[in-house]
Amino acid sequence: MSLLLFDVDSTLVNSRGAGRLALARALQAAYGMSGEIEVIPLAGSTDWRAVREALTPAGLSEADIMAGWPEFCRLAPIYLQQTIVERGLDPCPGALELLAALQPAVARNRALLGLVTGNLETTAPVKLRGAGINPAQFRLGGYGSDSGDRNVLPRLAVERAAALTGQSFTGRAVVVIGDTPADIACGQAIGAATVAVATGPYPMDALAAAGADWVFEDLRDTEALLSVLLHDGQKPNGSPCR
Question: d(Cα 143, Cα 116) in Å, to the nearest integer?
Fold first, then answer.
């Protein structure tokens, strides 16, 4: 069985700015300020890290930020849902088709789908549903509400997969799919195979330079992606990129 761990933003979902706006609204409500959330980089980050980076320059201490964190987490999915209604979300190219094509493998216990995302555990499904993706097909995950360190998240997802199935997932039986060098790095942190898609801010050559095992323009090449995701993770013809 392959454990396939998908990033959400710019891998499966194009949030069209709704995610950042929802964060700003939740920060304003929980902390009385949105800080620098409009300008800090979010690609490859986690929500906890983003909150800290947005509010620390505004003068809030670590203790202040931690004190407001539970309220922020409560409000974040509420503001996200409201913002999605206003702005809408789209699935990234090929995402719906690839997930549908993986379902026979899931049914035969050849694949288990999960998430590794900087979103909170409560906001990730809101984004997926907003893009027409059923979050129930992802049976576990590692989330930005678990840790601010993205490299920790795949290990947590693997542990949850083992607890769910009774099966150990190691090495390249795990595949991390994302759109940033941070996604690649977090997969490499546990020795997983990595698939990068250039549907976010990073072009294919930058993702290849970051060490991705395979790089695709997007998720539309369903057959090639199925071959990569459902086999042993060996690089095609010794090449790191497709």
Answer: 6
